[in-house]
Specification:
Structural class: alpha+beta
Strand content: 25-35%
Order of helices and strands: HEEEEHEEEHHHEE
Radius of gyration: 21 Å
Number of strands: 9
Largest sheet: 7 strands, mixed
Length: 251
C-alpha cells in the first residue's frame, strides 16, 4: 500500500484519544516578591481550585499556544510591545496516566518571565486570576499535577540564574546592580551581601555593561547616584553566580 492509500484508509478513531495542552509557569517580581500567575478554575474538573494558566492546543504551534494563554490572562499582546519582553521557554512535558480525569492528556509546560507584568484578568473558563507570592502557594490547592510543574519551574528559574543572564529579563532595559541583586534575592529566597554580589556581577564577562549614566538621584539615605547598566551580550555566565552556600555569602 502506497502512502496516499494508507492515509486515505487511516482512521484515528481506532486509537485511544490523547489531548495536548500547554501550561505556563509565569513568574514576575511584584513589590520585591517572586510571584506566580494562578487562575481559579471556573468549571470541572477541579472547579474552584487554583491552577497554572493553560489550555488545549488548537491549530497552532506549542509556542503560540503558550503565548496565547499568557496573553489571555495578562492582557499582554503583540501590539502593545510588552509581550515581546516576555522570556518564554519550554520547561518539560507531563503525561502520566490519570493526571487529568477527563482523558489522557499530555501537557507541555512553559516557563515565562517578565518585569512588571500587569494585574491579570481571567480569560477563557477561569473564574479569577491573581499574582500569588510563591512562598504562600499551597500545593494542596493546585489542580491537576500543577504543584509538580510549579516546583520544576521554580527550580529551573533558580538554576538558570546561576549560569545565564536570565535575571536581566526581570528588570527594565536599564537597571542598577542593586535592582539586579533584588531579582536574585527574590528568586533564590536569599538576602545577598551587596558588596560580594556587586563584585561577582562585574567579574562575569559580558553579563552587564555600563550605560555611562546614573540614576536621577541617590538612594533613600542619600549618597551618590547609582550607576546604570544594561544587559550585555553574554549567553552563558562564566564564572557562574552560584547560590549562597555559606554565611559569608548571605547577609
Amino acid at each position: 500500500m502506497d502512502e496516499h492509500a494508507f492515509l486515505e484508509a487511516y482512521d484515528p478513531r481506532e486509537y485511544p484519544a490523547v489531548g495536548v495542552t500547554v501550561d505556563v509557569v509565569a513568574l514576575t517580581i511584584r513589590d520585591g516578591v517572586l510571584s506566580v500567575l494562578l487562575v481559579e478554575r471556573g468549571q470541572a474538573p477541579f472547579k474552584g481550585r487554583l491552577a497554572l494558566p493553560g489550555g488545549f492546543v488548537g491549530d497552532e504551534t506549542l509556542d503560540d499556544a503558550a503565548l496565547r494563554e499568557l496573553a489571555e490572562e495578562t492582557g499582554l499582546d503583540a501590539t502593545n510591545g510588552r509581550l515581546a519582553r516576555v522570556h518564554l521557554e519550554q520547561l518539560k512535558s507531563y503525561g502520566d496516566p490519570g493526571r487529568d480525569p477527563r482523558m489522557r492528556v499530555v501537557s507541555v509546560a512553559y516557563l515565562a518571565f517578565a518585569p512588571s507584568l500587569p494585574d491579570p484578568r481571567p480569560g477563557g473558563d477561569a473564574a479569577g486570576a491573581a499574582w500569588v507570592p510563591v512562598a504562600t502557594v499551597s500545593e494542596a490547592r493546585l489542580a491537576f499535577d500543577h504543584s509538580r510543574i510549579l516546583g520544576d519551574g521554580l527550580e529551573r528559574a533558580r538554576a538558570k540564574l546561576e549560569y545565564s543572564p536570565l535575571a536581566t529579563a526581570f528588570v527594565g532595559p536599564e537597571f542598577t546592580i542593586a535592582e539586579l541583586r533584588a531579582v536574585y534575592a527574590a528568586v533564590w529566597g536569599e538576602d545577598l551581601h551587596a558588596g560580594n554580589f556587586h563584585r561577582k556581577v562585574l567579574s562575569v564577562p559580558g553579563f552587564v555593561e555600563g550605560t555611562g549614566t546614573t540614576t536621577a538621584r541617590g538612594g533613600d539615605r542619600g549618597g551618590p547616584r547609582a550607576k546604570l547598566y544594561r544587559a550585555g551580550d553574554a549567553r552563558v555566565l562564566h564564572p557562574p553566580l552560584l547560590r549562597p552556600t555559606s554565611e559569608e555569602d548571605v547577609r
